[in-house]
Specification:
With 873 residues, this protein is α+β, with helices and mostly antiparallel strands. Among the domains are: 166 residues, Galactose-binding domain-like (Jelly Rolls, Sandwich), CATH 2.60.120; 106 residues, Sandwich (Immunoglobulin-like). Helices cover 25% and strands 23% of the residues. The radius of gyration is 31 Å and the shape is globular. The chain starts with a helix and ends with a strand. Bound molecules: ligand 9MR (2 copies).
Length: 873
């Protein structure tokens, strides 16, 4: 980093004041001349970018204090080299001249030996400086000529050997000389960029060629045997803003034949191989969902379920050295009680648990399930039923995705301030370690004290929203739990209204992330929407319609994430049946398709085909989650309209995530030829400790982030074009972390994609249906309803099954004119022998009595006949 004017002044003063300390003691080497503009070889020698890439051994943890790198060193070590602070990968050129210089202090005082050496035996020494360090920082220097080439030498400050414990601090460490360091060049493989997993037979098939050519190029699609099965000419697209590359695009959608091992050849390059198949995404759905079990806190991860490499002890159940989470106190001064906040998912690569981010992730798992009740292609939800995931709850009669969501819901409920305490009903913003821990670290080995942080309005509304979802979705499976969720949702919402502006501090980011947010109007909207959808309560309808978010622009170009959740409310109001007045509902739905149209426009403007603009502001921390969420909006527009262009947009988004991008990188572990596998994680620490696993298949990396907010990427990638601002290295937490909210977006999208099968042409409806509720019985314990279906096709239907789902705990008690069964909230009606045949234009009617304990009871928005959706009237 360029020194600030203030820092430059400080450097000049220091140089003048400490000239006497400048000594040249390189053994056996004549003093050399180093020109003033000689290149710097040390990375982050000013510590402006934090600790990375500096390491230490034999010392306390490294930290940056007042701009200097400091560590404590135990007294009484036998040798100088028994403790060290250093940097690897320092390049040396034989015969080149170098100047090594640095500021050092040691309190109370010690000898520090700076050595440039071979980092492994025989530790060949290229230069050394002995610095008598005292409590006052002084500058030392030496010059030397490198005796050999070494692309990866080590600079080490040997800090052991003093009798007393020391605090050693370094600053402005510099090694100037030799050749300018080579800029990092990622290996991006073949210049023809495809979805490395593959394409759906009836879906869009697009690729991008990186080329110097400006005129159209010939392309060939080859089968696994090498036979050319399709060919054509590419479309020049000029220089792509996001990548800075000159590119052309290929559209081979017309080739629909399933197969494995296809390649695309153009401009003398052969793409990574890919499949054309209608089952591509089936396992991605379960992989992406499986991530959550492996991230669980407070339960041993069972290797028999997910493979021995992922087996681990339960984390944070107060078994030493853990110091939480069964009775966690607040930060000093925040509260006078402790809470049992065991369970939940670890948020990301750290061991923190945050209500705000837990909220959106839980919402998306619940929404993945709820979609099975409202979307025609979800086909009644068999793929998301019980025993579809490898979780301990499989076989309990509850869909596994709900079991997984419940693991977090139970934690979120525990974060609510108990009755009788100040701010009762609010939710604590987060619970995490008092200080940051190093990597890797098995959760069960975390020795840090755990602390509850103050309640916040945002966290409280996240709890209200997902607890409300919980109330309606769990009602058919576990009435007691649903009731507990409903009670928590209402009390949290009331508490948030009573305390509408308690914000998490942006500065509260020691030992955990801040997740700060000072605009909670969107959280209010989302929570009111979910409560309305579950209860039908007029007060919630009043609140949500009064919110500026109800009619405002909630689907921005850059998508939505944990901080802006109005879109979650809007999506659910568009899809979940409710009593929203028809005109308002139509407007809500139109807002989703308008957003989807905008995302399609953006996608068509990007030569890599993603629904995200190409400027640096669109590549930010966790942008892959937002990109997936824009695909969720596209997918929802398809579910609402059955217009294939929206489905195609969602499918193309997957292309970007799975390899059709500037880096030729699949961002999903285990998927594609070249995939991210070193995401920042204390659990999946394989890159640092080979006995630990890589992230499991189906883990989504945060993705390219032009902000480069971690020192590793800041050093390595400075100046990168937005789409190149990513590195698959565990140190790069701002480009390459795992996180529950990114995987929940992937899981939702993957589930949608899996449901599209071959992505064949969408057939016109061949039935119409009416659902009539004849009203509640006196006492409100049940109601009577009737469904009429009409064959609007041209062929006779011989034998029919009609299906729809209730919103909450409604249960069919008895039925007539069809054989009616119910599983969860889903009702299946099969014809009787006397009404099995429906000639074109013919109708059949059946009716039922159902019980309910209350809550919203709207007419379903999806009724299918033999699996195909009917138009509703
Ligand atoms: O590991 C932490 C990661 O989960 C967070 O996203 C990130 C930002 O809050 O911080 C990481 O922790 C680093 C901390 O911020 C600074 N010291 C080094 C920590 C480990 O890389
Ligand atoms: O996803 C979060 C991103 O939007 C923020 O810009 C970033 C910095 O505040 O924090 C991200 O969240 C991290 C959290 O603070 C700590 N756990 C890891 C999360 C993912 O990196």
């Amino acid at each position: 980093m360029t020194p600030s004017p203030r820092r430059r002044r400080r450097l000049a003063l220091l140089a003048a004041a400490t000239a006497l300390a400048l000594t040249g003691t390189a053994p056996g080497v004549a003093h050399a001349e180093v020109p003033p503009d000689a290149p710097e070889q040390i990375k982050n020698g000013t510590f402006d970018a934090g600790v990375s890439p500096w390491f230490s051994y034999g010392t306390g943890p490294l930290g940056v204090t007042a701009g200097r790198l400091c560590a404590t060193v135990p007294g009484g070590l036998a040798n100088p080299w028994d403790a060290g602070i250093g940097q690897d990968a320092v390049p040396l050129k034989a015969g080149a001249e170098y100047e090594l210089s640095f500021d050092v202090s040691a309190t109370p005082g010690a000898n520090v030996r700076a050595v440039v050496q071979l980092g492994t035996a025989p530790y060949t020494q290229y230069a050394a400086v002995d610095a008598a360090a005292t409590g006052t920082s002084r500058r030392f220097a030496t010059t030397f000529t490198a005796s050999e080439d070494n692309p990866s030498a080590q600079l080490i400050f040997q800090v052991g050997g003093a009798a007393a414990e020391q605090t050693v601090c370094l600053d402005d460490v510099s090694l100037r000389g030799g050749e300018p360091p080579k800029p990092y060049e990622p290996d991006t493989g073949p210049r023809v960029r495809v979805n490395q997993v593959g394409y759906l037979p009836g879906g869009p098939k697009n690729a991008t060629i990186v080329t110097e050519a400006t005129a159209p190029l010939d392309w060939q699609l080859r089968s696994a045997s090498g036979a050319v099965v399709a060919s054509g000419r590419s479309t020049p697209r000029g220089v792509d803003a996001a990548s800075g590359q000159n590119v052309q695009t290929v559209d081979f959608s017309a080739h629909r034949t399933p197969g494995t091992g296809y390649t695309l050849v153009a401009d003398g390059e052969t793409s990574h191989p890919f499949d054309i198949s209608g089952t591509l995404y089936d396992r991605l759905r379960s992989d992406a969902l499986q991530f959550f079990y492996i991230q669980r806190s407070g339960i041993a991860i069972d290797g028999d379920l997910v493979g021995e490499e992922y087996a681990r002890r339960a984390g944070h159940l107060d078994v030493a050295p853990n110091r939480g989470d069964t009775s966690v106190p607040c930060q000093p001064g925040v509260c006078d009680y402790s809470l049992d906040v065991r369970g939940g998912w670890y948020d990301a690569g750290d061991h923190g648990k945050y209500v705000v981010n837990g909220g959106i992730a839980t919402y998306q798992l619940l929404s993945t399930f709820e979609r099975t009740k409202t979307a025609a292609t979800a086909d009644g939800g068999a793929a998301l039923g019980d025993s579809t995931l490898r979780v301990p709850e499989r076989g309990n009669g509850v869909p596994d995705v709900l079991d997984e969501a419940r693991w977090e819901l139970e934690f979120l409920l525990r974060m609510q301030v108990p009755a009788g305490k100040p701010l009762a009903g609010m939710a604590h913003h987060k619970i995490h370690d008092r200080n940051w821990t190093g990597l890797p670290l098995d959760p069960a080995d975390d020795p840090q004290p755990r602390e509850l942080h103050p309640p916040s309005t945002a966290a409280t509304l996240n709890l209200a929203a997902v607890a409300a979802q919980c109330a309606r979705l769990f009602a058919p499976y576990d009435a007691a739990f649903a009731t507990r969720c409903g009670t928590a949702a209402r009390s949290a919402y009331a508490a948030a209204k009573a305390h509408p502006a308690i914000y998490a501090s942006p500065a509260d980011s020691t030992g955990g992330g801040a997740y700060d947010d000072t605009d909670v109007s969107d959280e209010f909207y989302w929570a009111a929407a979910e409560l309305y959808l579950s209860t039908g309560g007029a007060a919630y309808l009043t609140d949500l319609t009064a919110s500026r978010h109800h009619t405002g622009a909630v689907f921005g170009d850059q998508g939505f994430a944990w901080q802006g959740v109005a879109a979650l409310g809007r999506l659910d109001l568009a899809t979940v049946p409710s009593g929203l007045p028809a005109a308002d509902r139509a407007r809500v739905r139109a807002s989703v398709t308008a957003a989807a149209d905008r995302y399609l426009e953006i996608l068509r403007g990007q030569a890599y085909g993603l629904p995200m603009p190409g400027d640096a502001n669109s590549y930010f921390w966790g942008a892959n989650g937002n990109i997936a969420n824009n695909a969720v909006v596209l997918a929802t527009a398809f579910d609402l309209t059955r217009d294939a262009k929206y489905r195609d947009g969602a499918v193309q988004t997957a292309d970007y995530l799975l390899g059709r991008n500037a880096l030729n990188m699949s961002y999903v572990t285990g998927w594609g030829e070249q995939h991210a596998r070193n995401q920042h994680s204390r659990i999946f620490g394989n890159q640092l400790d080979p006995t630990m696993p890589n992230p499991p298949a189906g883990s989504l990396a945060g993705g390219a982030n032009a902000g480069l907010q971690d020192p590793f990427s800041a050093n390595l990638l400075a100046g990168c074009k937005p789409m190149f601002c990513f590195v698959d290295d565990i140190n790069s937490y701002s480009t390459n972390e795992v996180a529950i909210n990114w995987n929940s977006a992937l899981a939702w999208l993957a589930s949608f994609l899996a449901d599209q099968d071959d992505a064949a042409a969408v057939p016109a409806p061949t039935c119409a249906a009416t659902y009539t509720n004849y009203g509640a019985w006196s006492g409100g314990t049940g109601f009577t309803a009737q469904v009429t279906i009409r064959n609007t096709g041209t062929a006779t239907v011989d034998g029919w099954t009609a299906r729809f789902a209730f919103t909450g705990d409604q249960r069919v008690r008895d039925a007539w004119l069809a054989k009616v069964t119910q599983s969860g909230a889903t009702v299946t009606a099969r014809n009787e022998s006397y009404n099995a045949r429906l000639a074109p234009g013919a109708t059949a009617t059946f009716g039922f009595n159902a019980t309910t304990s209350g809550g919203a009871n709207p007419a379903p928005t999806l009724i299918t006949l033999n699996g195909a959706p009917c138009t509703l009237s």
